[in-house]
Model the fold of this input.
Amino acid sequence: MTEKQYRSLCDKDGKFVRHAGDKSTFPFICALRCARKGIMYAFATQKNLKVHTCFAIAAVLLGFLLSVSEAGWLAIVLCIAIVMSLEVLNTAIESVVDMVSPEWNALAMRAKDCAAGAVYIAAIGSLIVAAIVYIPRIIYIVGAFISG
Done:
């Protein structure tokens, strides 16, 4: 860390502050701002997070169109939250690995692959939940339409 970078993390008296630049007297508000910055960074830099967002919007729209049950909505919202959270966590892990191991390293690759694998597992689980929630509703609607 350069001296300039360190100074940017200090207050006017040169004391290190937890969240540089945030003058909020409420630590919770400061924490929310930091979380927002992290989500915005992940969304701006990660194509997969944008893809997950598109699928989340499609899942919500399909839920409204098919009038899914409350239990279905709980499953949908939980899946969206888990996949999106893991994608942001994956971004954080990749950033830390890149910081501590800028050159190629087998362990760094393994850490990044495992983090990506966690997102993949959650996404596959979400597809299974979607099939369980949506397919019976689709079959019911199609059957009702065919029978008149």
Summary: The chain has two domains: 1-45, 47-148. The two ends are 71 Å apart (CA to CA). Residues 22 and 48 are 30 Å apart (CA to CA). The chain has a mean pLDDT of 89.
